[in-house]
Amino acid sequence: MPSNPAGGASVTMTSDPVTSRVDDRLLADLEAVVGEQHVRHTPGDVHPYSRDATPLFSSAPDVVVFPASTQEVAAVLRLATERRVPVVPRGAGSNLCAATVPVRGGIIMVLTRMEQIVEISAVELLAVVQPGVTTAMLADAAAARGLLFAPDPGSRIVSTVGGNVAMCAGGLRGLKYGVTRNYVLGLEVVLATGEVLRTGGRLWKDVAGYDLTRLLTGSEGTLGVITEITTALLPMPQTALTGVAYFPSLAHAGRAVSGIITDGVVPATLEFLDQKCIGAVEDYAHLGLHRDAGALLLFGDDGAPDVVKRNLQRMADRCAAEGAIDITVGGAVAESEALLEARRCSLPALSRLQPLTVLEDATVPRPRIAEMVDRIDQIAERYNLLIATFGHAGDGNLHPTACINPADGDAAVRVERAFGEVFQAALDMDGTITGEHGVGAAKLPYLQARLGADQMALLRRVKAAFDPAGILNPGKLGS
User: Fold this and answer.
1) Once rounded to an integer, what is the mean pLDDT over residues 452-457?
2) By the 8 A CB rule, do 29 and 75 touch?
3) In whole angstroms, what is the distance from residue 354 CA to residue 300 CA?
4) Separation of alpha carbons 221 and 191, rounded Å
5) N or C, which end of the chain is more exposed by having fewer CB within 10 Å?
6) What is the pTM of this model?
7) Is residue 148 pLDDT above 90, yes or no?
8) How far does Cα 328 stand from its chain's mean position?
């Protein structure tokens, strides 16, 4: 096939669906690119890559490849485009929306061998890393230089920076610090045709041309394969402290959240657990939580010690004014870490209740959090499901979590229908179907309800411009 000047294969977009055509010839070509030991194609070897952290979604790839360089990524993509074979880029597979499930088979491209921290610059407040570097690795390396990598997804120990960028991951610090897209300065990305682009760069201010860096961030592997990330860092806060307040109901907690924001405090931590979560966490971790409370609110701040102490007191006072039945403020970093454990162990605590947990996310305006949780409870009761809810009170991002036994007849079907109603409820409240987990395959059926037909058509045109053969993560965004 002829090549263009940038080295990518020339492709004419067609309406034919991408199909899996992995044969012996392609396997040999892939082995020639990445090495025989870095290609897996037997059923036992590819099975672990048929799913990610999303329950109820599974589809087997035909082959799994582990490239070690940008050049190898480009070569694999040129082969895939020439043969019209799907390619699904993947990091650690910790996403929660089936974004890395190969719904049309083909090639899974695992980028975890590309795990080098290329540079950390304290002068420029940035890091340059390959996509397979884990969030925790980068955070620890930055901390050793007195710097903060602000994005903080719940799966930070295993999630990769490349995956964070592809999914635009959020986390507990989202209200004060924003999400992944707020820190991506530049990208190296390989298009489906094998062309290598560099978008953005090392600058905090750069408005030259369309913001392709921002477009690629959160594109879920449908527009290109990210092979290097330049990300902003911040000075490490001097201290961080946390408090916890118990309320008779989520409505009381919601009023406290609104009051805290109205008072002019932007907390580093503002998280909530409903009553079902409180009980599950206490059974699991024995932290001494008040089981009789209707809701628990974790609040915290970081920065200069005197500012943090003052802000924590202001937040505690607001909680008291809104009817908190008990308030504890951590007086030291160790005590604050113990308080935060209640939020961090919510999912493992709930996972003990039934063999399978289905964790979703939806976002509503802050003043409607309590109303949304009430609606979730009503939906759960109607479908005879246990759904507990925790989440980020500061930005209205809720994580309703269904605990089910797959052996319970049609439980999986009931969960799917229940969450369809949850997403619609969020839209009815001027919210969205996902605040931080992404769309993937799991939420694609609900995307048009959020964006409308005109935006969906535009997504498809953008997709065609980046990936004319349609090989990148087909069956997801823009498909």
Assistant:
1) 96
2) no
3) 32
4) 10
5) N
6) 0.92
7) yes
8) 30
